[in-house]
Amino acid sequence: MRVDAGLSRLLGLSRTVVAALTEDGRVAVDGRTAGKSDRLTAGAWLEVQLPEPEPAKPITGPEEVVAGLTVLHADDEIIVVDKPVGVAAHPSPGWTGPTVLGGLAALGYRVSTSGAAERQGIVHRLDVGTTGVMVVAATEHAYTVLKRAFKQRTVEKRYHAVCQGHPDPIRGTIDAPIDRHPRHDYKFAVVAGGKPSVTHYDTIEAFPAASLLDVRLETGRTHQIRVHLAAMRHPCVGDLTYGADPVLAKRLGLQRQWLHARSLGFEHPTDGRWVEYTSPYPADLERALELLRDH
User: Fold this and answer.
1) Which of 63-67, 127-131, 283-287 has the lowest mean pLDDT?
2) Confidence of residue 253 (pLDDT cuts 50, 70, 90)
3) For 48-188, where are the alpha helices, taking DSSP H only?
4) Would the pTM of this model clear 0.85, i.e. be above it?
5) What does the alpha-carbon distance between residue 269 and residue 292 come to, in Å, rounded to a whole number?
6) How many angstroms separate the Cα of 163 from the Cα of each of 28, 106, 152, 239, 283?
7) 127 given a catalytic annotation
8) What is the pLDDT of residue 50?
9) What is the Cα 32 distance to its own chain's centre?
């Protein structure tokens, strides 16, 4: 094959990039500088000098006051927030909305840890459409300690969820592996060979059409509660992405899934004492509960 075609296939580079490499004298065959139209032959010694990769551009988001973002606790090591709906944990490609980190920066909080610039201090995340308690590490020490705690599952994460129907049994454990949905990249699903995922649930209150659950996560996969409840045929009320009934969601005035990070407990990075923070239901979820109780 010609050098440009062969190198393109061998290295997965575009023809344009390969042409530029040969013009710069960066390709040699058997010790001689090769042109893009020269031929590659079996057994020849091929040398290619690849260009330096372009430095990664940090993903940044706006520093702006985020409506509804409440700081539940702050000290030298940690910042505990109550995250409102429609807010991401940190900047990411394609997300132009508000973030927890941007909101904290606007309030004057400074986060100083290693790792990707856009994820400074983020040790766990909540979905954009999920409200509730989140902890952000303010220092390198807190980041290391909390990351380890989440990995070792010593953090107690409790969520409240309203699911459609009535789970049977009313108290139980869902142990089913999760990975990206085989057909829809924006979704996740229970998939054989996925990451181990364990969710414990207990029914707090039952309504004619739905149930309020207390959910404890043993693992922390993306969309874990939403995926596990949908797999049981009891999706979160309002979670249209995972098969919830749009008629019920509309009747309850829900624009998102009824899922709330109710409380978060962990050993404080400074002295190891157990601390726990709780978030009240936001107005839209409280209103939906009232409507369920009235019917």
Assistant:
1) 63-67
2) very high
3) 100-106, 140-151
4) no
5) 41
6) 64, 36, 28, 9, 18
7) yes
8) 87
9) 50
pLDDT band at 56 (very low <50, low <70, confident <90, very high): low
- Asked if residue 187 lies in contact with residue 237, where contact means CB atoms within 8 angstroms, the answer is no
Question: HSE of 91 in the Cβ direction (CA atoms, 13 Å)?
Answer: 17
CA gap 103, 89 in Å, rounded = 10
Evaluate if residue 207 carries a pLDDT over 80.
yes
Interior angle at CA 158, CA 153 and CA 161, nearest 5: 135
From edge to edge, which strands make up the β-sheet containing 32-33? 32-33, 27-29, 46-48
Q: Which two tokens stand for residue 178?
A: 């999760």
- Give the count of beta carbons closer than 10 Å to the beta carbon of residue 201: 26
CA distance 137 to 113: 8
Query: Residue type for 274, please?
Result: W
Q: pLDDT-based confidence at 57, cuts 50/70/90?
A: low
Set 4, 82, 127, 239: catalytic member: 127
The closest alpha carbon to 100, from 77, 75, 131, 76, belongs to 131
CB within 8 Å of 34: residues ≥ 6 apart: 3, 22, 27, 28
Strands (E), the chain: 27-29, 32-33, 46-48, 70-74, 78-83, 131-137, 156-164, 171-175, 178-180, 188-190, 198-206, 210-217, 259-267, 274-278
* Torsion sign over Cα 121, 126, 131, 134: negative
Q: Which ranges of the chain does DSSP label H, i.e. alpha helix?
A: 3-11, 15-23, 100-106, 140-151, 224-231, 246-251, 283-294
